[in-house]
From TrEMBL:
Organism annotation: Leptonychotes weddellii (Weddell seal)
Highest taxon of the lineage: Eukaryota
Stretches assigned to the Voltage-dependent calcium channel alpha-2/delta subunit conserved region domain: 2-216
InterPro entries: Ca_channel_alpha-2/delta, VDCC_a2/dsu
PANTHER family: VOLTAGE-DEPENDENT CALCIUM CHANNEL SUBUNIT ALPHA-2/DELTA-RELATED, VOLTAGE-DEPENDENT CALCIUM CHANNEL SUBUNIT ALPHA-2_DELTA-3
GO molecular function, one term: voltage-gated calcium channel activity
Protein known as: Voltage-dependent calcium channel subunit alpha-2/delta-3-like
A Pfam entry, by short name: VGCC_alpha2
Length: 239
C-alpha cells in the first residue's frame, strides 16, 4: 500500500488521503521522507527570525523562610483560615442560583503570561531543477521507498510513499519556533543597536504609467415620468 500527498514548494500538504493532514507540514507526517529529501538536496532548510514574537514568561520566585510560630499565632492562623474558607464557600456556592437558575457563568481558564521575545524557526524551499526523484530509506527492520515528481507549470509536487514501512525511529521534522536566549549584556547592546526607521522622502501614491482612474458607482434614484403621469390621468378620467 502507498500514501499519496500533494505538497507545495514549501512542504505543506495540500491534498492527502487523510483529509485531517491538509495544511500540515510534510515533515511532521513523513519525517523520514522529508529528512531524506533534505539530504538529497531536493529541499533546503532556511532559518527565519521573528523579532516580534510572544513567548511564555518563566518567572522565578524566591521567598524567604518563615519564622517559628508559637501556639497563639498558630491558633489565630487556623481561625483565620477557617473563616476565609467559609466566606469563599458561601461566595462560590452562588445562593442566587436557587431562585434564578439561568444566571450562571462558566469558569474560564487563566491565560498564560506572555512577554516579547525573539524566536527562530526553520522554513523549507524546494529546488526547481529537480523534476523527479526517488529513493529508499533504511529503517530498523524495513526499507521505505518514495517517489516525488513535480507537476508541470506549477509549484506543486506529487509524493508517493510506501506506507507498509512506518520507520518510526526517525524523529519528525517540525517548524516549531525556538526562543533565542540573550544574556543581559548582549540584550542591552542589541537594544542600543536598533535603528529608527527612516521616513520616505516623498509620497508615491500615484504613478503616471498606472493610468488609474476612478470607476464604478451606485445608480441614482430618479422618478419615472410614466409612474407620475399615470395616477394623474386616472384622477382626471375618474371625474
Amino acid at each position: 500500500t502507498v500514501n499519496c500527498y500533494l505538497i507545495d514548494n514549501n512542504g505543506f500538504i495540500l491534498v492527502s488521503e487523510d483529509y485531517t493532514q491538509t495544511g500540515d507540514f510534510f515533515g511532521e507526517v513523513e519525517g523520514a521522507v522529508m529528512n531524506k529529501l533534505l539530504t538529497m538536496g531536493s529541499f533546503k532548510r532556511i532559518t527565519l527570525y521573528d523579532y516580534q514574537a510572544m513567548c511564555r514568561a518563566n518567572k522565578d520566585s524566591s521567598d524567604g523562610a518563615r519564622g517559628l510560630l508559637d501556639p497563639y499565632n498558630a491558633f489565630l492562623a487556623a481561625v483565620k483560615w477557617i473563616m476565609t474558607e467559609l466566606v469563599l464557600f458561601l461566595v462560590e456556592f452562588n445562593l442566587c442560583s436557587w431562585w434564578h437558575s439561568d444566571m450562571t457563568a462558566k469558569a474560564q481558564k487563566l491565560k498564560q503570561t506572555l512577554e516579547p521575545c525573539d524566536t527562530e524557526y526553520p522554513a523549507f524551499v524546494s529546488e526547481r531543477t529537480i523534476k523527479e526523484t526517488s529513493g529508499n530509506i533504511a529503517c530498523e527492520d524495513c526499507s521505505k521507498s518514495f517517489v516525488i515528481q513535480q507537476i508541470p507549470s506549477s509549484n506543486l509536487f506529487m509524493v508517493v510513499v510506501d506506507s507498509s514501512c512506518l520507520c518510526e525511529s526517525v524523529t519528525p521534522i517540525t517548524m516549531a519556533p525556538i526562543e533565542i536566549r540573550y544574556n543581559e549584556s548582549l540584550k542591552c547592546e542589541r537594544l542600543k543597536a536598533q535603528k529608527i526607521r527612516r521616513r520616505p522622502e516623498s509620497c508615491h501614491g500615484f504613478h503616471p504609467e498606472e493610468n488609474a482612474r476612478e470607476c464604478g458607482g451606485a445608480p441614482s434614484l430618479q422618478a419615472k415620468m410614466v409612474l407620475i403621469l399615470f395616477p394623474l390621468l386616472l384622477m382626471l378620467f375618474s371625474r
